[in-house]
């Protein structure tokens, strides 16, 4: 009788826990009993990341001609607006990184979703240029730097040993974004840019609202562990061979930025961003300099979009298994660009660039969480993303100045390739950072999703 009562109490307790679980978890467990919920979280991050497409640089570039025609402004003015949106976003990221660490990724997406949609609506309806500029900047800050950024941090918190492959899954969204930009361009030409922008608002809501149902800040917050582990002790053993792995060491923000590895990675992000930004903005002029057809740019972007997932999957597997050779891919693409003079070389450039973009995205998403832990990854990831954004914003200026002085893009391409060669060599001499005192802060990343968690530490950042 006593045993039956005990079993009844345990069953009642389990039922109460199940009812207390978030709705998304209850739906997932009813559809896929026994499966790890992290798969649902990753699946929810993909549409959230995709929904930030209207704020991506290649999407914002579609508005240039329409803003010039509708408002009678110069292309230099629109270029300055583009630069300000990226440079301003790099500063804004430092705020949003702290917000993500303080309130969690799910709350951050909720906080940014409505203003993001409002920016799209204002962009589609405004006849005032200054209001349009405000919405233009808002699309960048609230899309990639709020919504998509939260998705990236979520992946870092839910995955540890499988982080590279999980981040590669996010690049499905990036590949779709590159292809959708071409589709949106055609729709804007046929139906008008304002109408298509309004349609984008509806698409963002249709993607994000269902995904938010399944998005959770961290596995610890809902009583789970990263990578689908059942017990805390399991994290000490690798799945194959039974080899021991060090416990996760979580650096604070200030501890991380006091390491030289942090600033080396930031310098790499800036350099990669400036090279990609310069090539991206001046690609048409670059092809024309070599006497290539205007269709060559479409060929390049098609190849980039096709090979982004391949670069992401390869890099994700290497990060989870061995090491990363991402910088070599970037160097190869720039070297090919120096000699590019026909469609075959243009396609080859697109292939290597696609592999680089996919690999670079995975590397950028995962490297700080892998080196410094998951607990404060929001603030640290924001710093890295800001460096890349500044590079993308400043890169076109470097390319333009070089071209005006030497009347050719070759000098800046050679300098970029040489820099990547140097950085690639330096990676072999960079050791993993060590926490001061050798301590092991195993802070629960889920704890940081609460406004009161680790308040003193965050206030000191």
TrEMBL record:
Membrane topology note: Multi-pass membrane protein
GO cellular component: membrane
Molecular function in Gene Ontology: transmembrane transporter activity
Keyword vocabulary terms for this entry: Membrane, Transmembrane, Transmembrane helix
TM regions (residue ranges): 36-58, 78-95, 166-184, 196-215, 260-279, 299-319, 331-349, 382-406, 412-432
Listed Gene3D superfamilies: MFS general substrate transporter like domains (1.20.1250.20)
Subcellular location as annotated: Membrane
Keyword Membrane: yes
Signal peptide range: none
Segments for region (Disordered): 440-461
Limits of the Major facilitator superfamily (MFS) profile domain: 40-435
Protein name, as recorded: Major facilitator superfamily (MFS) profile domain-containing protein
Originating species: Guillardia theta (strain CCMP2712) (Cryptophyte)
Taxonomic placement: Eukaryota, Cryptophyceae, Pyrenomonadales, Geminigeraceae, Guillardia
């Amino acid at each position: 009788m006593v045993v039956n009562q005990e079993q009844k109490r345990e069953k009642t307790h389990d039922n109460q826990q199940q009812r207390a679980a978030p709705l998304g978890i209850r739906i997932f467990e009813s559809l896929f009993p026994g499966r790890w919920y992290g798969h649902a979280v990753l699946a929810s991050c993909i549409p959230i990341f995709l929904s930030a497409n209207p704020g991506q640089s290649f999407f914002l570039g579609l508005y240039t001609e329409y803003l010039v025609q509708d408002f009678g402004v110069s292309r230099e003015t629109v270029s300055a607006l583009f630069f300000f949106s990226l440079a301003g976003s790099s500063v804004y990221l430092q705020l949003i990184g702290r917000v993500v660490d303080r309130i969690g990724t799910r709350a951050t997406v909720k906080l940014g979703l409505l203003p993001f949609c409002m920016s799209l609506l204002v962009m589609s309806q405004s006849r005032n240029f200054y209001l349009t500029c405000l919405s233009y900047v808002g699309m960048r800050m609230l899309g990639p730097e709020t919504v998509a950024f939260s998705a990236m941090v979520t992946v870092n918190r839910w995955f540890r040993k499988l982080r590279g492959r999980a981040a590669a899954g996010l690049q499905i969204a990036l590949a779709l974004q590159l292809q959708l930009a071409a589709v949106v361009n055609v729709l804007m030409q046929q139906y008008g840019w304002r109408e298509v922008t309004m349609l984008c608002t509806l698409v963002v809501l249709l993607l994000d609202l269902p995904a938010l149902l399944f998005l959770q800040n961290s596995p610890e917050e809902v009583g789970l562990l990263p990578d689908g582990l059942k017990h805390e002790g399991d994290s000490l053993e690798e799945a194959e061979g039974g080899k021991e792995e060090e416990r996760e060491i979580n650096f604070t923000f200030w501890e991380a930025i006091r390491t030289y590895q942090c600033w080396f990675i930031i310098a790499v992000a800036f350099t990669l961003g400036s090279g990609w930004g310069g090539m991206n903005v001046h690609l048409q002029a670059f092809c024309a300099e070599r006497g290539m057809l205007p269709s060559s740019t479409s060929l390049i972007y098609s190849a980039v979009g096709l090979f982004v997932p391949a670069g992401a999957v390869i890099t994700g597997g290497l990060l989870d298994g061995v090491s990363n050779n991402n910088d070599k891919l970037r160097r190869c693409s720039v070297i090919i660009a120096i000699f590019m003079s026909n469609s075959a070389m243009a396609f080859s450039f697109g292939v290597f660039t696609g592999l680089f973009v996919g690999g670079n995205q995975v590397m950028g998403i995962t490297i700080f969480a892998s080196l410094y832990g998951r607990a404060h990854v929001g603030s640290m990831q924001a710093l890295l993303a800001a460096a890349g954004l500044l590079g993308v914003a400043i890169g076109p200026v470097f390319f333009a100045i070089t071209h005006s002085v030497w009347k050719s893009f070759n000098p800046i391409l050679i300098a970029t390739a040489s820099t990547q060669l140097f950085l690639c060599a330096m990676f072999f001499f960079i050791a993993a950072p060590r926490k001061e005192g050798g301590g092991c802060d195993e802070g629960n990343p889920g704890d940081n999703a609460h406004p009161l968690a680790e308040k003193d530490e965050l206030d000191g950042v």
